[in-house]
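Appendix B. Worked example

We walk through a single record from start to finish. Start with the input: the chain for Transcriptional regulator, TetR family, Marivirga sericea, length 189.
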Amino acid sequence: MTKSQKAILESAKSLFWKHGLKKVTVEEICEQAGVSKMTFYRRFVNKEHAAEEILEAILEDNLRRYSAVMSQNKGFPEKISEILYLKHQESKNISKDFINEIFKEDGSALSELIQKHTLKSYKALIADFEKAKKEGWVRADLKPEFIIEMMEVIKSKMQDENFLKMFKSMDEAIMELSNFFFYGIFVKR
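Next comes the structure step. The output line below is what the pipeline stores for this chain.
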């Protein structure tokens, strides 16, 4: 990857996280990256193409980091605590607009990318829950289908305006949902 491409992707990510995809222009990305529009269009078809590359890299990196944590020789609760820390780090400063845009199921390339990654991560999550069940960390009667359904509920909450009004930031909402999913109403120990 060239220096210009890296600058474009970093600028685009920064702007998308702050303002969402729709509110950001190619001109703003280029200005922040210090490159011309011609340089941008030599590498990317449009800003959505840049967003796809950014998301693909982030999602793959997150899955890689998740797998690395889950393969550690630690108890399931410690692994979950570490996963939640990683989730907090990745969700910092992300805008509500961007979350709504990427989770909107509209048949766009971004939507398809999210769907593809969601299936991959659900498979990994289910496998890890099954392993945790066998090790006695998770209730033996917990159904994988229930876990998937709850993950979908969490995803829908990230687009629920009434729910999001309770929180100062998307990061806070994401962490509250994640903590509730893993710990319920109990104090973490």
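Two observations about the output. The two ends are 44 Å apart (CA to CA). The first helix runs from residue 3 to 19.
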